[in-house]
Amino acid sequence: MDSGRWSLQLFDVMLVVIAGIVFWELGRRRRTRAAAGRLPPGSVGLPVVGETLRLIAAYKTEDPEPFIDERVRRHGRLFTTHVFGERTVFSADPEFNRMVLGAEGRAVECSYPSSISTLLGAHSLLLMRGARHKRMHSLTLTRLASPAAIRDAALLPDIDRLVRRTLDSWSSSPSSSSPSRVLLLDQAKKITFELTVKQLVSFDPGEWTESLRREYLLLIEGFFSIPFPSFLSFTTYGRALKARKKVEAALKEVIRKRKQEKAAAGATMTRAAGGDKKRKDMLEELMDGGDEEEGMTEEETVDFLLALLVAGYETTSTIMTLAVKFLTDLPHALALLREEQEGIRAKKGDDEEQPLAWSDYKSMPFTQCVINETLRVANIISGVFRRSMTDIHFKGYKIPKGCKVFISFRAVHLDPEYFEDARTFNPWRWQNNEVAQLQQTGGAGVYTPFGGGSRLCPGYELARVVISVFLHYLVTGFSWEEAERDRLNEFLRPYSYRID
Ligand code: HEM
């Protein structure tokens, strides 16, 4: 081969390399330019239905976060899709999640489909906005669910008594020597419903509470159904609307009676069921000018109470049930938790009836680890929807004003980047400060089972107390084995368990 041909070939190679570099650079600039003004990458799927069917199908599989996992792999932690009739930006990015949670009322606002808003009622805390939301959120927190309210306002004795009442009923069957069969989720729901009714309107369990619960269950089903028009009253949604009217009527009746009592007494004294005057319930708070700025009509009071009944019900009861499920599958953790709780009971001496005190609740470190871990891996609130009120710029992307956004808590909770061996149920991870450190260094968006910002769940402490009291009486009074597998078990199958 002569030297002329060699240099010609070398020239060709150099030309190809230079062209490659130029094209790559042009492409990179184009991508950066596009990203700066564009939605996050993704796919909007089929016309009209978008990726809704894929979303629904994905959640019928065994994977806990299938829809998001697959898209995060393809597009990154921020991606665009089209679900439930709307283009939606999904986030599995803790930084973005934290930003959105903190921007409520400024860059984003809460956004529920109209079928859900109708069931909730326009004046529920979940739909309130602006200054009124701020006032009512703070009232709910301080009066109903803050540590001080639980500790000082006789809430804990009520929780203790009502939890015990249900658990006692399990062993009071005529043939109590043979084991009872308990549908745990049903029982947990019964407990949370009775407790909330007690806190809101001071009614103890009885016929009134049971009939309210029957209607309420129909109402709850409506949240998970297709919203056919209301005149189709035989559909799940139609039945839910009818049930809402009945719940509304029952609550209005209570409000009227309360007003008459107050008028008769001529004073705003505190009251509680059975005539003991220990503390105000939520209704009393609202009637005594809960929202002093604007006052509340009967309709507004009903919406407000009803939403509180909805918000803490499924959430707390599923975590109670799933904590038991995880403990059943992890005997070592159950043994540790039982040891902790038996220690607390032992300190109370021979008096089996002595209720748990706030100081007892504060001395259950391992129980809190179990609750934290259950909330991390299996919270039924997997994330929340918002709508952007302005253009949002994040990591070079632009989310335009009016766009729907879903921030996924669970996708972050199950991300190995933030939690080692993330899909393993491991309550011991909470014993070292790994997660607390993450919250500080990695940003507050890493562990958010109760949301954050101005819509942070006001029931976060109350829920923990209820679950703790429930676990206390369960493990100190009962032993159990799984009777059959159900849908909750199926949902949990992908998790493994770590024994330290
Ligand atoms: C394990 C139990 C619970 C979990 C996991 C949970 C979770 C959440 C989450 C994630 C939010 C934020 C929603 C958003 O940002 O749009 C929220 C809001 C809320 N939660 Fe809870 N919750 C629980 C128990 C309770 C309880 C017991 C109550 C009763 C007081 C309650 C009342 C509320 C209310 C009223 C809101 C709306 C707050 C607002 O929009 O200002 N929750 N909850």
From TrEMBL:
Gene3D superfamilies: Cytochrome P450. It is found in: Membrane. Heme binds at residue 457. GO terms for molecular function: heme binding; iron ion binding; monooxygenase activity; oxidoreductase activity, acting on paired donors, with incorporation or reduction of molecular oxygen. It is a single-pass membrane protein. The chain crosses the membrane at residues 6-24, 216-237. CDD domains: CYP90-like. GO terms for biological process: brassinosteroid biosynthetic process; brassinosteroid homeostasis; sterol metabolic process. GO terms for cellular component: membrane. Its cofactor is heme. InterPro entries: Cyt_P450, Cyt_P450_CS, Cyt_P450_E_grp-IV, Cyt_P450_sf. Keywords: Heme, Iron, Membrane, Metal-binding, Monooxygenase, Oxidoreductase, Transmembrane, Transmembrane helix. Belongs to the cytochrome P450 family. This is Cytochrome P450 90A1.
